[in-house]
Amino acid sequence: MADHSIKLLFNNMKAIIIGGGIIGLSSAFYLQRSGWEVTVIDKGDFLDNCSYGNAGYISPSHFIPLATPGIVKKGLKWMWNSKSPFYVQPRLDWNLINWGLKFMQSANTKQVEEAAVPLRDISLLSQQEYEGWTKIPGFDFAYEHKGLLEIFQTQEGADHAQHILEKAHQLGLTDTVILSKDELSKLEPQTTINAIGALWFKCDAHCYPDKLMGSLISYLRSAGVQFIANNEVTGFGTGGGKIKKVLTTTGSFEADEVIIATGSWGRETARLLGIKIPLMPGRGYSVTLEDSPYKINFPAVLVEGRVALTPMDGNKIRFGGTMEITSHQTPPRMNRVQGILDAVKRYYPDFDVALPPKEKIWYGYRPCSADGLPYIGRVKKFANLAIATGHSMLGLSLGAGTGKLVSEIVNNRPTSMDIKPFSVERFS
Known about the structure:
By secondary structure, this protein is α/β, with parallel strands linked by helices.
């Protein structure tokens, strides 16, 4: 069936997307293009969610999920360090306990190996779609395809880089190379870097998330997508194995299809329909220097410091990091931001970045699945429901690809890749 025929088939049918982050808006992009009448509902104002403050990576290199054997051991060690890169707030919470048990069960070598191919495939799909977006007139999000550096300071880091290099080549990412200290310096001649080398993923790209979200919202509005802001979903009207209505704090909306893309609130939204998804919010922080006095040419991950740096939009650098498994109600911990800046200083000794005032620090909640793979697909209980959440730190990176997959699912078309590893009910 041609795209034009698909558009005619779904013309005037209503899709309600719950969640206005990159996953929800990407889904709106592809559904609107295939003929759906799309409404996006969000509990906020669409202007400050996790899709704005991240590092902006669009990264096929990120084929290792969060749940790995080493992270469990390190997480227990780091639990007592409030500045540590990975922190689980100890508390008596059944959702956390359930998620934690599944996380530890998933953090094994076999599952990490099995996750690599689907993560690679959805990353490459997403990057391909983003590159298509750059050709849309007026759609500017400062996209650059120049690669990502993973910079290491220790022999352990170098050994790990060699292992990842071999795995990347096995996955077909053959333009990945290891750089010596001198080779790294030649790529970044404008500053001193305390490191013994780096892994250079030439396959990666990056963008300025603020511009991406702004361009996407502007495009969707002009295409007729309806935005309902500051409206929290409180329930659903169901019948006959389908969702009939979406109920919110201000009224109800009829729907032929419903897409749940509520990010770190995905578990709570799904629970309103009696669907259980192991998912916890993982808070991250970032600081952005406007008209930065410091210059770097390439995005970088500081391996031992677990911090990300990204040059953005010509005159900015963003420093981001930490994974803080906590509740949405827990106040932000500014000492975690100091931990990010301390790590930057250890690698870039010329960078003197003071802890900014609280209002200049961004923080947001990533939706962390129990195994590091997103949840994308249908569920057995409702024939007209699709769920897309659980992308952890890869939400923006996988955004366009996820939106395309959601559109294919909703339109009953063959998907661009095998989505069985992302089954929403894989833990049931």
